Amino acid sequence: MRVFSGVRPTGNIHIGNYLGAIKNWVELQDKADCVFCIVDWHAITTPYEPKKMQKYIQETAIAYLAAGLDPKKCIFFVQSQVKEHVELSWILGCVTPVGDLFRMTQYKEKSKELKENPSAGLLNYPILMAADILLYQTDIVPVGKDQVQHVELTREIARRFNRKFGKTFKIPRVQISKIGAKIMSLQNPKKKMAKTGNPRGCIGLFDSKKEIKEKIMKAVTDPGREIKYDPVKKPGISNLLTIYSGFSGKPIKEIEKEFKGAGYEEFKKSLADLLIEKLEPFRKAKKEFSREKINKILKEGAKRAQKIAQKTMLKVRKNTGLV
């Protein structure tokens, strides 16, 4: 069973990325043949700072490794170091109707956020994602809820390609983390936690103890003082309960009982202490991993990934008549 997933190197990786994806990957590497990727080509589909790209790639790699990914157990690399991703993306684009791309919810949302006209790259983002997945003959794609639509499109593209050119790709399926699949902003619990926007709404994996405590204590809550999970009536405290559950491993019901009769301040202090403890390995890892060590791991991972990618592309070229 092969698993593929990746994350964009667009800034400080936050606890939403960890609970929604990376934590799940660490568990999967002991159960499956895993391919994990830093998707830098996806990162340039929206405005970015070129001078910071390599810094973000390094920090993303450190986050993967600090979380527990083992390059001996999984393939771990940077997307742009394996050129077959783009080659397959072009071929898949030739069998994908433009209408399918314009229907993507993420494209619609990001297009509204951009001050300038959205790029063709942003529109074609789901095709590149499909190439990422199909290139490795993936069985399972662990993603957050916001990426499910893209994986469904990947499945349709694979089916369409197989009908037209003969069986070439496996049809992957989605796996969503049961806990923390969508962590919301600490300042606006109706919006997903993001690297951009209000910095107080996001806790990075490398944030200092002081930053973590301040952000949690200032997190938006709801009227009343009861520690109860209710995303509709109490979105603020519900989000904090989800975070607590994700990092403690305790069911939300158990956490509710533990803090029955307590107020928001007591609960927030406990959550801040928990996050400070659980994120300590990330702060240490950032100091311990050198650029040379990271680059060596990524280079070796790219070589392993490319062997699989080349095998798939040979089949694709033959089936499409390109060789």
Brief account:
This protein has helices spanning 15-28, 40-43, 50-67, 84-93, 98-102, 105-113, 120-123, 125-134, 148-165, 209-217, 235-248, 252-258, 264-278, 280-288, 291-320; strands at residues 2-7, 33-38, 74-78, 140-143, 173-176. The protein is mostly helical and 323 residues long. Helix 3 (50-67) packs across helix 14 and helix 8 (125-134) packs across helix 9.
Question: Topology of this protein?
Answer:
Elements: E1 2-7, H1 15-28, E2 33-38, H2 40-43, H3 50-67, E3 74-78, H4 84-93, H5 98-102, H6 105-113, H7 120-123, H8 125-134, E4 140-143, H9 148-165, E5 173-176, H10 209-217, H11 235-248, H12 252-258, H13 264-278, H14 280-288, H15 291-320
Parallel strand pairs: 1-2, 2-3, 4-5
Explain what you see.
The structure is a single chain. The protein has 323 residues and is mainly alpha-helical. The chain has two domains: 2-181 and 290-320, Rossmann fold (3-Layer(aba) Sandwich), CATH 3.40.50.620; 199-282, Orthogonal Bundle (Tyrosyl-Transfer RNA Synthetase). It has helices at residues 15-28, 40-43, 50-67, 84-93, 98-102, 105-113, 120-123, 125-134, 148-165, 209-217, 235-248, 252-258, 264-278, 280-288, 291-320; strands spanning 2-7, 33-38, 74-78, 140-143, 173-176. The strands form two sheets. A three-stranded parallel beta sheet has the order 1-2-3. The chain has a two-stranded parallel sheet with strand order 4-5. Helix 4 (84-93) packs parallel to helix 15 (291-320) and helix 10 (209-217) runs antiparallel to helix 13 (264-278). The mean pLDDT is 93.
